[in-house]
Amino acid sequence: MTREEEEAQAELRRIVEALKKVRSQLRDIAAALPSTLEEAMYAEEDPDVATEVRSIIECVLTDQIGPAVRDLAAAAEYRRKERDEP
């Protein structure tokens, strides 16, 4: 592996750790929001702020941050398979 590849993977590991911190912070924000009656009723139109914020955080965590952490962590640890020499 080249020095540039090693540096890129090291930087990816740092980014993964930063994303994990962001994920934790977003979970804390969602957990701190009060539960509302609207949330319990699955309101679809014009939800209150807590319901809307919690919903968006959950979507971002599930659809974007979770997959980004998983995929970038895999890239940071990727190693080319050894080829059998003829």
Description of the molecule:
It is built from 3 helices and no strands. By secondary structure, it is mostly helical. The chain has one domain. Helix 1 packs antiparallel against helix 3. The radius of gyration is 20 Å and the shape is elongated. It starts with a helix and ends in a 9-residue tail after the last helix. The mean pLDDT is 89.
Quick one: biggest sheet?
A: none
Sheet-strand content, in percent, reads under 5%
User: In terms of structural class, how would the helical and strand content be classed?
Assistant: mainly alpha
Q: How far is the first residue's CA from the last residue's CA?
A: 21 Å
Determine the oligomeric state from the structure: single chain
Averaging pLDDT over every residue, what do you get?
Answer: 89
Task: Give the radius of gyration.
Answer: 20 Å
Helix content: over 70%
How many beta-strand runs? 0
Following the backbone from N to C, one meets helices and strands in this order, namely: HHH
Shape: elongated
Give the uncertain stretches in residue-range form.
Answer: none
Count of discrete structural domains? 1
Give the helix tally: 3
